[in-house]
Amino acid sequence: GKKEGQTEGIAGARIESSRWVDPVRISFQNIQGGFTGDEGARANMMATRWGKGGIWGMAEMNNITGDSMERKWKEANDNPNIPYKTIWAGKKRDGPGAGMALFIPKDMSNGEEKVVYAHEEGKALAVHMTIRGLKVQIIMIHMPSTSTAAQGKFIEHMRKHIPTPEEDREVILMGDFNMVETPSMDIDPPTDTQTHEETVGKLQDWLKHMKPGAGMVDTYRLIHRTAHGITHISQNKAQTQQKRLDRIYASTGLAAGYPRLVEADIIAANRLGVRICKGKKAGDIKYSDHAAVTVMIARTITEQDGRQGKKGNKLWTYSEPRTPEGRERIDRATG
């Protein structure tokens, strides 16, 4: 039967446990080219994503002027009929390749979200927020595709400007990385040739130091140990490889803590049901060539040690001790 907290319409591998409660979904997509400029299309796109629930991050948002985009988001935030709050970056560059936004359900926002870094061209955004008692730093990036040298400089820039979070704050890093770490599993047809070795080294070093006293894990790879995963299908007919360019990393506290990661998946762009404007001809509408990536974090019943029936118990309280017994139980669940 359906597990408590399980959502409809998104198939994916889940860590098996008795059941989980109070799930929160966090997702990302490079929408590749911005909105059509039509307000109805914009509303339709967001409504479709809200059917999937949770927090959404998006890259390549702009196809109108930055000031105008900023004004539209402010108007949306002030409109009580719009169910989400928008945090946006990208004022210094217009055009379809720029702009990044984080959409948060207003009923999940406590009004204390803090932008700790916003890239002027909308290539990165870092936000401190609290999700039902869990303190997190959500980082979104859109890495350059031009060269490994440009990617290396981008990572160095991120490390310099995005602050290291305090010890009790978990980290989620999501975005379009424009490279893969494991070509044998993240490229189709698979290959053993790594063409971004320098970038991989710098990215892994950044991940290692992103969360003090811990590390970061590739959420899809944590659950889908050996499965091929593809998020980008090039529309360039000369490009025959398909790749997992889009990923979500999480600090190890979310892989072996309270709450924890229970699901990771890839959602094909056409399954989202919303198309975007591509090309110069009027009416030239296509789907993004990037799939969405998504994770779910939740508390599992088994992790509450029998306390879930107590009056006033808050399922998302993060101050509970992470006992060796609890870690052992999670290690068994994650394989």
Characterize the largest beta sheet: strand count, sense, and whether it forms a barrel.
6 strands, mixed
Order of helices and strands: EHEHEEEEEHEHEHEHEEEHEEEEH
Unreliable spans: 1-18, 278-282, 303-335
Distance between the termini: 23 Å
Structural class, from secondary structure content?
Answer: alpha+beta
Query: Compute the gyration radius: what is it?
Result: 20 Å
Work out the helicity level: 10-25%
- Tell me the number of helical segments per DSSP (H or I, 4 or more residues long): 8
Report the strand count.
Answer: 17
Beta-strand proportion: 25-35%
Task: Please give the order of strands in the largest beta sheet.
Answer: 3-4-2-1-17-14
On the 0 to 100 scale, the average pLDDT is 75
Shape: globular
List the main descriptive attributes of the protein structure presented here.
single chain, 335 residues, alpha+beta, six-stranded mixed β-sheet, disordered C terminus
What is this structure's SSE topology?
Elements: E1 20-30, H1 39-52, E2 55-59, H2 66-78, E3 84-89, E4 100-105, E5 114-118, E6 124-131, E7 134-142, H3 148-161, E8 170-176, H4 183-186, E9 187-188, H5 197-210, E10 216-218, H6 219-223, E11 232-233, E12 242-243, E13 246-251, H7 252-255, E14 260-267, E15 276-277, E16 285-286, E17 292-300, H8 324-334
Report on the structure:
It is built from 8 helices and 17 strands. It has 335 residues and is an alpha+beta fold. It has a 6-stranded mixed sheet. A 6-stranded mixed sheet has the order 5-6-7-8-13-10. A 3-stranded antiparallel sheet has the order 9-12-11. It is globular, with a radius of gyration of 20 Å. The two termini are 23 Å apart. Residues 1-18, 278-282 and 303-335 have low confidence and may be disordered.
